[in-house]
């Protein structure tokens, strides 16, 4: 049985990068850049005033109080009509280009218009050369990498792409995820369950998590526990980049999943992982470089499926999209109460992570009653990680997976 770390390595090893496509930046939200975004120009393209005030020559103010002639007014989007000479100043607005000859800006609050001559301004203190001026190329140099490949496109990246790349982006396309929910006991959310039946919660939950992870989802619905129906659904699901099968992947008399996948040419990579909940996870892959499909057989229990998705399926989707990939684990959470894990598997326990006053992150394990307790699970925003056969005291630091 693989450890969580070993299983993650296998998922990453068998992942592949999806083809690239160019699209509008606004349509690429959540997707990953397939190439570096490089600035084609210097930014700003001119020396720019960073305050409302007066552009001047700093050397004119070395003696302290000085009275300068106002010879121009420059607003954003306009340029100076003439160069400044010694003894002159230009009224200037934030973002406007500096006039030739000027090297500094003094804030309007630090000046006073001459009461006897409105075309002159009084400066009361020396101005440091370069004050409140952003030099040409001070933000970006031509050829500089602004956003590296692998970065996820957020609203700020959309703005940068609008400025530097014509509002377009080269990205890896969104992965397609097919979802099969198996079980004679399952009914849809709109159906009142009869004796021995339960509503299908895994299918909608997995769809929501896949969409949140950046995928396009095809729901193949509830499939009954018979070979023909499941075989047909698997054939359809293998047209996607990732196939998720909820339930039917263990060793029960109606668990046909592993056999039918093998018949369709899906190679098993591993079955069972040393974790709780989620031990029965099955993972395989069909195909080489020609339209491969990654297949995850997820436990039918919602809590187990949630844990396995955030650890393994999300890792696979990140790899497919070429996202800059870090570990799913976030460290440095201060435990707020004692916790004991007497079992022989690491536990991923529903918890509430938060920031405490003054900085630092805390995490509080919830009063979770086990895999069937989805009400408490809904209160969690993290899965606290506890090693096997371990005892933790409040004040210790632990890692977590954010959900």
CATH superfamily of the largest domain: MoaB/Mog-like domain
Helix share, percent: 10-25%
Instruction: State the separation between the terminal residues, measured CA to CA.
Output: 25 Å
Per DSSP E runs of 2 or more residues, the count of β-strands stands at 27
* Radius of gyration using CA atoms only: 31 Å
Q: Averaged pLDDT, please?
A: 93
Structural class: alpha+beta
Oligomer: single chain
Low-pLDDT runs: none
Count of runs of 4 or more consecutive helical residues: 7
Question: Which CATH class of the largest domain?
Answer: Alpha Beta
CATH architecture of the largest domain: 3-Layer(aba) Sandwich
Description:
- By secondary structure, the protein is an alpha+beta fold.
- It folds into four domains: 4-19 and 174-321, MoaB/Mog-like domain (Molybdenum Cofactor Biosythetic Enzyme, Chain A, 3-Layer(aba) Sandwich); 20-43 and 138-172, Molybdopterin biosynthesis moea protein, domain 2 (Alpha-Beta Complex); 48-134, Molybdopterin biosynthesis moea protein, domain 3 (Molybdopterin biosynthesis moeA protein, domain 3, Beta Complex); 329-402, MoeA, C-terminal, domain IV (Beta-clip), CATH 2.40.340.
- It is built from seven helices and 27 strands.
- The chain has helices at residues 4-14, 155-164, 202-212, 227-237, 257-263, 302-321, 374-377, and strands at residues 20-24, 37-38, 48-49, 53-56, 66-74, 88-92, 104-107, 111-113, 120-123, 133-134, 145-147, 168-172, 176-182, 186-187, 198-199, 216-223, 242-246, 266-271, 282-286, 293-298, 329-335, 339-341, 347-355, 361-365, 382-386, 390-392, 397-402.
- Strands 7-4-6-5-9-8 form a six-stranded mixed beta sheet, with no helix packed on it. Strands 16-13-17-20-19-18 form a six-stranded mixed beta sheet, with helices on both faces. Strands 21-24-23-25-27 form a five-stranded mixed β-barrel.
- A hairpin with a 5-residue loop joins strand 23 and strand 24.
- Helix 3 runs parallel beside helix 6.
- It is elongated and about 95 Å long.
- The mean pLDDT is 93.
